[in-house]
Amino acid sequence: MKTIIAFVLYLSIIIGNENLDIGFRYGFLSKPTYDSHINTILSDSSIIQSGNYLRINIGYLTESNIQIIYKSAVGEYLLLDFKEASSNNPKVTQQDTAYYTALNWTDIEPPSGTETFYFINSFEPLTKLIDLFKKYDRAPAKGQKKLATRIQDVINFYDPDIQADLSSLSSQLEKPVTGGVAFRGENDGINDLSVTHECKGKDGIAFKKIILIHK
Asked: What is the pTM of this model?
């Protein structure tokens, strides 16, 4: 009897999570040089140049899970390490939202092409994706090519452009929000910790794909 009750409770939690609104906030920023204090807001189809520096800030529900995947212009994959990126700017929790630096200022190197970033937010753990990246990071070049196809298949599973029963909507916030303590010398309200956009999903999944045009 206890087992049945526990199972019912577990099932109700899962179903409840799927019906809840899910979403995250993000700030995708760039600047021309590392020492520059002029931050530019990036969005899908933004143009960047070799030598530009990129930064990603993220805010998501503490009860959810989020991963950000980078696909380079040459087709290489990288799962962003939040802990490493946030080492100088620790996680900040405001009410039910956790704010991280997902990518610290990093310069973009040649070759040119399309640089793709996938944001996947889910109430369920993204275990399969994480396990594939553990194998990918250890694999030789030939093995990475095969694993890259499997990684893309998992990404596509969450992509509303491919899965008709999923839906995500992204919009720019009226005013940027600072996740944590703001730096001095802000430019039009945009600082190194700003989040500028919001993505909302349904059925326990929020997904955002951002393609940058690297020239």
From this structure: 0.85
